[in-house]
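User: Can you recover a sequence for this backbone? Please restate the input before giving your answer.

Assistant: Of course. Working from this structure:
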């Protein structure tokens, strides 16, 4: 191996401090105690298992009905656990040797749960996360708690990461459930609603997190009870739980519909300006690099670092800049200057050299004054956004305009504000598309479409689009068809979706490093389950090179050496670009290989299945292929008991070839893992390592790094740069230094903390929406499920009547100050009730009496309408009115909430916490929404005339809806919780005209709602 082996690393050492390790040796770890606690239960399961072997197949199957009967008689699933688990174990024994056609592939059943798998099943039943190493049979482990909990008849969901695994596992593990008399189904992307409903009504349902989540949202858009497909949230087990509940949870599920605006040419119109800015910025940064190099040569280190810091903020991925950063002392000098300028709050002075400033860590770009001045006069005008408040006040003060002219002037002001704000937002997103989003890294272009690449799995995500116009900006950059914008119709985060379940559990090979987040967000505890056989994989120290080129050359040499030795090699990359670069290099040296990345994921199962053959080389983007085991070819393993690992009681004979094969110098057999870069999350690295050493197989792993890797470049500390300078390494020399390795791990922990902060912050915002969503969805469900809504309708009528009277005739005002004229108009408009306020009888009433008067009149009108229509038609009308108004107003509310989130981070610049501000405004908006729903529902009940039974409100046709797992905005958050309270990430302006909500007071000062005043004009 390149650079010498060095001492192997133990995975536990990556996650334990010295103190934790010492305490664990004395008292045992929490995981050890959990396993020990369950051991008596395992022995009980094995006793019943021995007993059941004397039963016939029919007698074993009859146990299912017996268990159900005992549950109905008062026993609990906990009482039945040993017997139910034993029934599953015996069903596996009876299936052994049978062959089944699973998704077109013949599988021969050879599985009976081990004791450690029974332990894992018990942990899942308790509603916890079971961390089990790759290849330990998590798919089989889940069958025991699934069967046990399905006996209650309320439905159990098994959540997987893709449709293929959901279908494969439902057919494969379904053999057990069917054998024992239960029904099993699987949700697939292209299923119609009746088929989905049938699948959810089965005892056990497999599917992906997206399908379950989107079905929940669609159910809450249904206009008939029979249109809903799900039946509740009883118990779910999430496979690859870290991928679903952490990686995927950074982005919400969104069902979007057309906005009605299809003209996307404005993105193309702005493209030329942005391309020109990029060219000018490249010239500026090129000049700054040249000046910085000369200053360094002249010994003026600080002045040189100032120039180079400007380059870092203007073109951080410039090749010449990245090469110069490797020179001794350069990176350290830049970091020192950056710290000085940040401390003195003088970073804007650095940005004065640039047209726009890039912050890679926060994924933001800001146009500078210099950038504005470089634009043509007509382009500069776009950024002169008028202040609506000041503009309206100035128009009102003009005496040369009459009311009609003032209204027209204000309307023109609103239009200019909206148009320019939108164009500023488009320019900002285009700048981001050109500077921060790279083709074949963040996205690929296929069949004329921009398709996002999942940063964690390397898989294509054709159902997702970047939000806030970023996707359209990338389409404009790539000169492909720019697809129309969409509007949110329903949305939920995965965190809040999975918290709907009464009991939730999960399983994965890597959860311990994220145990804190699992507990804080989901209240899920993590238990590490021991392997059935000892892990025989050797994990070697990282090797670090100065440049990416040196690193890739070393990787190719390593692959060639292992390939020639007949060992299979799995190479893990972090991007499509990296995998294709390595593929080209391997082709040049004539090494055959397979590439598994976002572009070829349809061949995933076939490629992964061959990855363990002798001498086979597989390049996989991140964790592509996860969920499919790599089984080693016969000659890959030299002996069934590797001697590099200490003997245990289970090992009868250690490999006698240890000296002959020189095993201590280099592992000669098993799968070899090569990591081409450290991921920002340690568990992703552990997942890659975990592909080797499956079920006691020998194997090895090693990571190759360079100082040009994104993790090292963005988050590497000044200490790393200092170590590099002190070591004085020449080109091609490898670095194996414990201080560098520790610094890398600290950088990973820092990024993990930052990403957790973003996910937590996203959840804090969605918790506000979640409370509102629960109120709306519960109210909507009541409208659908209740046969007779008469009492609800009468209650709404009385509530609206009381609110209108209180609004125009307040109890603390004298009767002669009441606005009875406005109240009369509102009552006629909303309830078709005309009260003669000038009559002596009404004049004598106080507020309470007036409220009762209005209520009795309104109820009388309702009763008369019911007599005219018949009670049956009136009930249909009430249901129609309630559903129609809820859906229309909720859709508008979601749009307004999107606009609120877009700019809420800017509040931090005014020393206000964006989250608190968001909660305040969201509460006010929701209160107004509920009042509007009540009022408009009552108005529709009174004013709607029926010549035939009313149609139910139409749902947006499925073909016009998009299911989007969109990128989440950080909502002003960029760092830890303390930073979130003190600083917000600057967000681009987006459609600022919609900041004036439909139900807000019109800015013109008329006192009317915006939708009734200038909103009607602009509409």
């Amino acid at each position: 191996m390149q650079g010498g082996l060095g001492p192997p690393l133990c995975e536990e050492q990556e996650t334990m401090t010295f103190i934790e390790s010492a305490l664990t040796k004395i008292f045992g770890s929490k995981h050890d105690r959990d396993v020990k606690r369950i051991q008596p239960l395992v022995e009980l399961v094995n006793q019943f298992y021995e007993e059941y072997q004397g039963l016939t197949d029919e007698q074993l199957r009859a146990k299912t009905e017996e268990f159900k009967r005992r549950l109905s008689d008062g026993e609990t699933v906990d009482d039945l656990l040993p017997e139910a688990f034993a029934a599953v174990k015996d069903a596996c024994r009876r299936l052994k040797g049978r062959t089944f056609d699973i998704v077109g592939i013949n599988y021969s059943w050879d599985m009976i749960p081990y004791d450690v798998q029974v332990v894992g099943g018990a942990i899942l039943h308790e509603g916890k996360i079971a961390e089990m190493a790759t290849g330990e049979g998590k798919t089989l482990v889940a069958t025991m708690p699934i069967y046990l909990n399905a006996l209650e008849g309320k439905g159990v969901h098994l959540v997987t990461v893709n449709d293929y695994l959901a279908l494969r596992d439902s057919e494969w593990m379904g053999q057990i459930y069917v054998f024992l008399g239960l029904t099993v189904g699987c949700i697939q992307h292209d299923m119609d609603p009746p088929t989905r409903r049938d699948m959810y009504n089965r005892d056990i349902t497999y599917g992906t997190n997206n399908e379950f989540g989107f079905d929940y949202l669609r159910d809450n858009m249904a206009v008939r009870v029979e249109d809903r497909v799900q039946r509740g949230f009883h118990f779910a087990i999430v496979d690859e739980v870290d991928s679903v509940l952490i990686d995927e949870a950074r982005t919400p599920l969104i069902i979007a519909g057309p906005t009605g605006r299809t003209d996307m040419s404005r993105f193309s119109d702005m493209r030329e300006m942005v391309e020109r800015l990029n060219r000018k910025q490249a010239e500026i940064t090129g000049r700054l690099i040249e000046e910085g190099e000369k200053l360094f040569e002249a010994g003026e280190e600080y002045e040189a670092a100032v120039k180079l810091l400007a380059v870092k903020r203007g073109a951080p991925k410039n090749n010449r800049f990245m090469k110069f950063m490797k020179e001794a002392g350069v990176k350290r000098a830049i970091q020192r200057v950056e710290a000085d300028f940040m401390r003195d709050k003088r970073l804007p002075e650095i940005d004065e050299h640039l047209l726009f400033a890039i912050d890679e860590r926060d994924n933001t770009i800001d146009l500078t004054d210099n950038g504005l001045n470089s634009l043509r006069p007509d382009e500069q005008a776009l950024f002169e956004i008028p202040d609506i408040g000041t503009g309206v006040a100035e128009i009102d003060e003009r005496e040369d305009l009459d009311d009609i002219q003032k209204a027209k002037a204000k309307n023109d002001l609103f239009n200019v504000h909206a148009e320019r704000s939108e164009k500023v937002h488009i320019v900002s997103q285009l700048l981001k598309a050109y500077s921060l989003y790279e083709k074949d890294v963040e996205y690929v272009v296929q069949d004329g479409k921009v398709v996002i690449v999942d940063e964690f799995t390397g898989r294509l995500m054709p159902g997702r689009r970047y939000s806030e116009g970023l996707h359209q900006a990338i389409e404009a950059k790539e000169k492909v068809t720019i697809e129309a914008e969409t509007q949110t119709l329903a949305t939920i985060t995965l965190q809040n979706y999975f918290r709907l379940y009464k009991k939730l559990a999960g399983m994965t090979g890597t959860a311990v490093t994220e145990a804190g987040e699992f507990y804080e967000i989901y209240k899920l505890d993590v238990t590490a389950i021991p392997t059935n056989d000892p892990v025989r994989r050797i994990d070697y120290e990282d090797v670090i090179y100065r440049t990416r080129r040196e690193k890739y050359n070393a990787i190719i040499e390593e692959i060639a050496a292992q390939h020639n030795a007949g060992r299979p090699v799995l190479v893990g990359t972090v991007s499509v670009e990296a995998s294709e670069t390595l593929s080209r290099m391997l082709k040049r040296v004539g090494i055959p290989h397979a590439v598994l990345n976002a572009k070829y994921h349809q061949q995933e199962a076939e490629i992964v299945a061959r990855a363990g053959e002798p001498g086979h080389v597989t390049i996989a983007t991140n964790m592509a292929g996860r969920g499919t085991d790599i089984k080693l070819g016969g000659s890959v393993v030299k002996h069934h008991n590797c001697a590099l690992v200490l003997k245990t009681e289970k090992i009868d004979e250690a490999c006698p070839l240890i000296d002959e094969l020189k095993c201590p110098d280099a592992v000669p057999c098993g799968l070899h893992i090569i990591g081409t870069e450290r991921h920002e999350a340690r568990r992703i690295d552990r997942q890659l390592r975990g592909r080797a050493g499956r079920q006691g197989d020998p194997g090895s792993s090693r990571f190759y790094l360079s100082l040009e890797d994104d993790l090292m470049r963005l988050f590497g500390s000044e200490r790393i740069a200092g170590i590099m300078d002190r070591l004085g390494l020449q080109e091609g020399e490898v670095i194996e230094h414990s201080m560098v390795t520790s610094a890398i791990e600290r950088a990973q922990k820092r990024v993990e903390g930052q990403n957790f902060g973003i996910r937590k912050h996203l959840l804090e915002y969605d918790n506000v929406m979640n409370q509102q969503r629960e109120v709306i969805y519960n109210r909507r469900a009541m409208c659908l499920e209740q046969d007779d809504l008469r009492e609800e309708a009468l209650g709404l009528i009385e509530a609206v009547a009381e609110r209108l009277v209180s609004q125009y005739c307040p109890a603390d005002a004298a009767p002669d100050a009441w606005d009875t004229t406005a109240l009369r108009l509102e009552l006629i408009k909303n309830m078709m009730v005309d009260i003669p306020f000038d009559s002596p009888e009404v004049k004598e009433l106080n507020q309470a009496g007036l409220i009762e008067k209005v209520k009795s009149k309104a109820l009388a009108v309702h009763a008369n309408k019911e007599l005219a229509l018949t009670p049956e038609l009136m009930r249909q009308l009430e249901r129609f009115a309630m559903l129609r108004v809820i859906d229309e107003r909720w859709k508008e509310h979601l749009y307004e909430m999107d606009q609120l989130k877009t700019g809420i981070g800017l509040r931090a610049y005014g020393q206000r916490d964006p989250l608190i501000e968001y909660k305040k405004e969201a509460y006010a908006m929701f209160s107004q929404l509920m009042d509007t729903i009540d009022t408009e529902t009552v108005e529709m009940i009174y004013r709607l005339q029926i010549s035939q039974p009313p149609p139910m409100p139409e749902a947006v046709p499925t073909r016009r809806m998009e299911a989007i797992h969109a990128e989440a905005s950080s909502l002003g958050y960029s760092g830890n919780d303390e930073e979130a309270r003190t600083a917000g990430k600057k967000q681009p302006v987006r459609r600022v005209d919609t900041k004036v909500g439909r139900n807000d007071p019109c800015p013109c000062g008329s006192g009317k709602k915006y939708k009734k005043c200038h909103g009607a004009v602009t509409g």
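That completes the design. The CA atoms of residues 670 and 699 lie 4 Å apart.
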